[in-house]
Design brief:
Distance between the termini of chain A: 25 Å
Oligomer: homodimer
InterPro entries (chains A, B): AB_hydrolase_1, AB_hydrolase_fold, Carboxylesterase_BioH
Protein name (chains A, B): AB hydrolase-1 domain-containing protein
Strand order of the largest sheet of chain A: 1-6-8-7-9-10-11-12
Radius of gyration of chain A: 20 Å
Number of domains of chain A: 2
Low-confidence stretches of chain A: none
Mean pLDDT of chain A: 95
Number of helices of chain A: 7
Structural class of chain A: alpha/beta
Largest interface: A-B, 80 and 80 residues
CATH topology of the largest domain in chain A: Rossmann fold
Order of helices and strands of chain A: EEEEEEEHEHHHEHEEHEH
CATH architecture of the largest domain in chain A: 3-Layer(aba) Sandwich
Largest sheet of chain A: 8 strands, mixed
CATH class of the largest domain in chain A: Alpha Beta
Number of strands of chain A: 12
Strand content of chain A: 15-25%
Shape of chain A: globular
Helix content of chain A: 25-40%
Amino acid sequence: MSTNDPIALADFGSFFAGGRTVRIEGKETRAIRFTQTASFQYDPNGTYHVEQAYVQYFIPARQRHPLPIVMLHGGGMTGTMWEQTPDGRRGWVQDFLRLGHAVYVVDNVERGRAGWTPFEEIWAEAPIIRNAEESWTLFRIGSAQGWPGRQAFPGQRFPVSAFDTLMRHAVPRWLGNNDAALRGFQAVLDRVGPCVVLMHSHGGEVAFRAVQERPALVRGIIAIEPSGFSPEVAAGSMTDKPVLFVYGDFLDATPLWRNLVRAGEGYAARLVEDHARVTFWRMAEMGIPGNSHFPMMDANSTDIARRISAWVIAEDPA
Amino acid sequence: MSTNDPIALADFGSFFAGGRTVRIEGKETRAIRFTQTASFQYDPNGTYHVEQAYVQYFIPARQRHPLPIVMLHGGGMTGTMWEQTPDGRRGWVQDFLRLGHAVYVVDNVERGRAGWTPFEEIWAEAPIIRNAEESWTLFRIGSAQGWPGRQAFPGQRFPVSAFDTLMRHAVPRWLGNNDAALRGFQAVLDRVGPCVVLMHSHGGEVAFRAVQERPALVRGIIAIEPSGFSPEVAAGSMTDKPVLFVYGDFLDATPLWRNLVRAGEGYAARLVEDHARVTFWRMAEMGIPGNSHFPMMDANSTDIARRISAWVIAEDPA
């Protein structure tokens, strides 16, 4: 399919998965005004539904592989990260669809369209949000010294001139919500059924833990620079399961990433012990230098999607 | 096009529009742990991008009308409200696409994938979120007395047994953000260009004010039970512009809605004075009884979409 052909979809849509009903009680009411015309007595006490995940799906008319790809964002991001690049190119949602994969894009608990709860009775702590300066270094666009002048690492493939648009993706996150995120993602898997999970960064911990909870549903795993893993790997949970790790360039530029790649290698070794079929891509050592922490937004994003799709077809998770 | 034929899209994707860069300063740093593997010193001080809108668009391969439809949610909702019904049917996004309209779905400032800011320096007040009890009555599903047993109004077309799924759509909102929402929506219009705006409830105030700011871009307006309007109607801003007001049933069941319909009639009269071509549908008086505040989710949602599409084609905004 050429990149400008129409996309034929068998279907697309969205659904919510998981969450729970809660009661808020004992709070004071207050008068509010919600447009210039309509005012109201606001009573926060009552019934709410919280901790659901939101999922948007796109099913191509002709599928190249029977298993859909479930895309799980990283920390402080939503599913939007998979569907646009900062410089306005198509994202991996469109790339994978055009390559014939059904795609499910998750806004997990607390993020984006999944909604969030403003009650400290439910999530006690304060959320954090990542600023541009921290993103610049953590996402390996450039060094801290390079930030004021927007001097990126030499050979950087991230669209640096559109860095501000990446910051529009950033949303608050609660550090205590990992278990809720795990439950939300499990509910997504239960609804989607057998699938390949493609996750990024903080999505690693959520997804690898979910694999341990739902080993029969997750038939293959693509981990883009995961920053977390499951604490245990149950015997038999990974047998013959294809797992792909993907890392970009400039990994030695921050101590955090030096450690995280080492942790990824260690986790990959544990998966091999449990008979997973592990593929480990350090792209810079494969003749593909220059990728940031966001290969799905880098200049060669479509090429990387093609390589990952080819890996899925070749490994044929079933 | 039959409802189960594949949908051929010329394109789809998303973008952010509007917003501004802010600096946060003078806050304390704190140690955080963001996965079981990765810990970090969190410094909230720095640069953020806030108050952008998120827009997802779907362009059909064959368009029946040249102007796209821009869908703007109501208060406490995101663009999700247009793409699924609580009982799992397709939403108006798919209906209007299948009817040949290009569709732009907005998550306006602070909602869904547009993100939000947790800093009181930017949005000082506390957000509110609507509970199930208030939604039950305000959205005219049933009376307050009917809530405990989920007894809806007789003839109710809202999928009452799936009411809890509607509550999963609810997200927090800031009552002081109407001006930011207006700016965000204007940025959306500037990016989309000439269009027809379809809005719901609280989206009325945002959209009608935006029409006054961008009269040349908004060529037609579909107001689904608007709860707010523009304070002024500038001379010449509405000349020959088609405007459709749509109201469901049970309007006398709450004083708020009695007043809001009256306000809608008054505003419609002002638009007529400025030579708008106004159509006013009280559906219950047109042989279509039983609709709630969410006709896009009611059992006859696809039929209503067809009627609105036919109105667009007949009025032919240009």
